[in-house]
Each structure stands twice: as structure tokens, then as C-alpha cells.
Amino acid sequence: MISTERTRRGMSAVLSGERRGFGSKFLFVGPAVIASIAYVDPGNYATNIQAGAGYGYVLLWVVLLANLIAMLFQSLSARLGIVTGKNLAEMSRDNFPRPVVWAMWAVSEVAAMATDLAEFLGGAIGLALLFNMPLIWGMVVTAIVTYGILIFERRGFRPMELIIGTMVAIISLCYLIEIFIAPIDWGSAAVGLVTPNLPDATALTIAVGIIGATVMPHAVYLHSGLTQNRAEVRHDEDRRKVLRFSNIEVVIALAVAGMVNMAMVMMAASAFHQGHSTVAEIETAYHTLTPLLGSAAAAVFLVSLITSGVSSSVVGTMAGQMIMQGFLHFHVPIWVRRLVTMVPAFAVVAVGYNATDALVMSQVVLSIALPVPMTALVIFTSRRCVMGTFAIGTVTRVLAILGAVAVLSLNFVLLAQTFGVPIPFLIN
Length: 428
Description:
With 428 residues, the protein is mainly alpha-helical. It has 19 helices and no strands. One of its GO terms (cellular component) is plasma membrane.
């Protein structure tokens, strides 16, 4: 609590003008850093490996598009919490009809469980590979470690922000090392980054998975809760200052997460696309990296995967708790929440289902659930009766609607593909 209260006092001093200097801005850093871990979780590893191995650098534009949409919606989520003092789930409960609230909660719970499936499995796979242990024991260790980190939440927001921030730094450093090890074709990467292209139906499935793994429903909910009442704001001028700091943090934190995702795709494209394009599983990627790029590259890959799995599982549990409390006004102990959301992951392993396939499909589920919080967020942040003078302008509203439409369009095409409806612009 000491760290948290010191941070609060420091933010108040900055807002009142008593404290100045570049270093004082770091007191406001935290919410977007925690939210950004959702954008480098193990689901990203699975979809990015498949994208790079199967299509080289072709799907990099999807990563860029997803990251830009994420920046916009995370900034809107932070804005909602800062201005109203309520998170997105609470606003939905207070403003929508009861049947709509129940439906939103149900969809959000499914998304939260899909999220935890990906995160929990990712950490377990990394531990199992690194220490040569059965996957089930990797899951047990992941559960113990994540619960141990969650205990720090009782001490206020600052310790958790520092822990998650350190883990984001580790993941980023790992992929900085990877792109120096892997021989990247930077020219092809640049072309793939700015040239929209979906070669076939499988590429569409992976693209939707990338969107689902990058723009995360639980992160949209969580960010509004992380910013609500974090800084003591006395009037609108204080809110404007906090919003300005928040927007800068969102851009920087998600730019880092976006570059990590691009590095994942580029590493997979460099290592696997020529001669190993069928690599689609995390385990196979690890074993293939050793002869191709050396044991150091494989070890760095595992360190980043374990860090990603553990940290994102912690954040996913925090988000699930916030979603349940916001929609239902119902609180359960954090260990119960952690236990319940682990059940699907243990079930997947128990029945022998392929872990990486489960990761990719969980991201598709997330992408289909994503329009629910996106739509609610656009509605609330556009209303002057809710946001007052902080309601978003026409340009921002149009961009948000276009982002939501882009996600919805991809989802409709995916559903059409799933049910066998021919899609003219795709070559199957």
C-alpha cells in the first residue's frame, strides 16, 4: 500500500503543479502497460507462428491493422474510466436493459475463459518444454505462480503495475534478441506490412485469430477499471491532464506490443516459411528452432513464452474478476476465480486435444466476442450525457465505428467460411 499511496500523492502533486519534470510523468504509467500484456499473450504466439510459417511476411498488415484498432479502443476504454469513475461493465449494467446486460455478461465470460485457456496453456507449454516435464505438471506450476503474483493485488495497484511492467520488458527484450538472431528479409517485411492480402481461406482464419489475439475483449473491459479513480481528479482540467498522459502511455505501450507481434511473425517467416511452412505448433516451433537458429534462439523463445503465459494469465484473472463484479455486483475470492477459469485448460489437456489448435481456436472465439465491448464503448464515449465535454468527436467516432465494422466483417466472413458459404475473393 505504501507504494500505491506514494504514487497517488505524487500524481496529485503533478496535477496541482507542485511537482514538475520529465520523471514525474512516469507516475501515470501503469494501466496501459498492464493492458498491453494481453497483446503479447500465448495466443499471439500460436497465431503469429502460423502466420509467419504458412505465409511468410504476407499477413504482417493484419498485425499492424489490429494494433492500430487496439490503440484506439484502449484509449477509449481508459477515457471512460477516467471521466466517469466507472468501468465498462459497470456502465453497461447501469445503462442497458437487464436482458442485454445478462447477454453481455455471458458473452464476456465465455471470452474470459477463452482468454485464460490461451494464457494458461501457453505458460504450461513453455514450462513443460523448458524443464522436460509433462504438460499437466506445467499447468500446475503455472497455476501456483500466477496465484502467487495475484496476492500482490492486495497491496494496491502499483506493485502489480511494476511486476507486469517488468514482464513486458522481458518479453520485449527476448524478441529484440530473436530478430537479431533470425535473418529477416526486411524488404519483404515492409511490403507485407503495407499490402493487404488474404491468399486463401486458411489465411482468413489466421487473420481473424490475429485480430482476436491482438484486440482483446477482456483488455477493453480491464483498462477502464484500471484507470477509474486511480488518480484523484478535482476538476475537468485535471481530467484533461490525466487523459493526455493516458493517451501517450497507450500509444507507447501498444506500439511496443505491436512491434513484439511483428517480430514474432518475422521470426517465424524467417525460420520456418522456406522448407518448414507446415510448422503450426508451439512445441514444433521450439524443436525446429534449435537446428535452424541455435539453442540460444530456442531458449529465448521459451523464456518469452513462459513470461507471457504467467503474466497474461494474471491479467486475465484480474479482468475476469472485474467483469463479474461490474455486470453482476457479485464478488468471488480471487482464488475461486482462478480455479474456475483453469477448468477449460485442464479439460483440453485431459481429453488429449492439440494444445496449439486450442490456442488458435480460443483466439477466434475472442474475435467473435470482441464486437460486444467495442460497440458498448463507442456508445458510451460518444454520449455527452455520459462523458460531458469529454465525449469523443466525429472523427474519432467514425474511426471507432470503422474499426468495429472491420472486426465484424472479418467475423461474418469467417462464419460464412465455417458453414460452407462460398467467398468470392478467397481461393480455397
